[in-house]
Amino acid sequence: MEKVNILYSIIIPHYNVPELLQRCLNSIPDLPSFQVIIVDDCSDGKIVDFRCFPGMERENVKCIFLKKKHGAGFARNLGLRYARGKWVLFADADDFFHKDFYNIISVYEKSSYEVVYFDSYSVFSDTLVKTYNREDIFKKYVDTKDENVLRFMSHSVWGKMFLKNFLDEKNILCDETPASNDVLFSGLAGLYATKLKIDKRVLYCCTIRSGSICTQINISNIEARIFVARKFNLILKDNYIDAKYWMNLIGPILSLMRIERRIGSTLLLDYFMHTQWIRIYYDLCDSGSRFIKRLWGVNKDKDMRKLQKEMRL
User: Fold this and answer.
1) Are residues 120 and 242 in the same domain?
2) CA-CA distance, 278 to 173, in Å (whole number)?
């Protein structure tokens, strides 16, 4: 592939879901202007046939196979080293892009925006039946017209397009934590971007399935979310960003209490002793709102909860 032809680098971490990875690849145009970088995070050879790994037949796909499991954050950072496109996009292996993907992003081919935000939707992976949107922040932006909602509260790297030179200049990378490893990446991009674009069209489909990171409720993942939230909130505080845009800490702490009451209780006490009262107010409003919506049937996530598993890991 000639460097001049590559406009879009799409980075996909993969672990043990080859059929879903193939579905994701099928949603990406097989064109010279696209560079697809798949980083396999030491998948199990009993599950994945590496002799016919998804994407190996395509010239615009680069497959990197790790010999030790490092997590999605490490995989994304490694993918960034090989990215040669003007634009960088991310996808999870079990998700896929909208059918109009190419037509949507090609509008920005010659633009100089640093970050472009798009809308998304969610389905159950096995049935493709629509469910509540895992990334409902875009709707909040539409309702409020407050771009800071997307800058600081849209924590996923998917559903966005990043200018590669901008990422390199600001040295923006993912955390390499078990969960929430893309929060800092998205947040720093939102913090540093001076030229951003918000496109209300749907670009990406985020799926929900058993075994994914969002359905595994375990100590390791929750503690990672708490660590990242504290780190990110401190960055926002140091940059004088209003506390209403900070991450909710009480939610993951209460989730931890369901699995490990002693650790969770200690963190909860520390939270109330050292968190600004205004942020406690926002966290309680956020968590309370979710509970009421679930109680009233607005958040119809019973199927999602059936998929969730609580584990002491």
Assistant:
1) no
2) 30
Count CB atoms within 10 A of the CB of residue 122: 19
Domain that holds residue 190: 3-209
Q: For 87, phi and psi rounded to 5 degrees?
A: -115, 145
Alpha helices in 193-218 (DSSP H): none
Q: Last residue of some domain: 178, 209, 240?
A: 209
Kind of pairing between the strands at 115-124 and 130-131: antiparallel
Report the alpha-carbon distance of residue 172 to residue 282 in Å, rounded: 28
What is the Cα–Cα distance from 309 to 268, expressed in whole angstroms? 22
CA 280, 284, 285, 287 dihedral sign is positive
Rounded Cα gap, residues 141 and 181, in angstroms: 23
CA neighbor of 302 nearest in space, from 185, 207, 208: 208
Q: What pTM, to 2 d.p., does this model score?
A: 0.91
Pair of tokens at residue 144: 């409020």
Q: Which of 283, 96, 101 is nearest to 207 (CA)?
A: 96
Cα dist. 98→14, 27, 87, 105 in Å?
A: 20, 7, 18, 11
For the stretch 2-56, pLDDT in tens is: 445 899 999 999 999 999 999 999 999 999 999 999 999 999 999 999 999 999 9
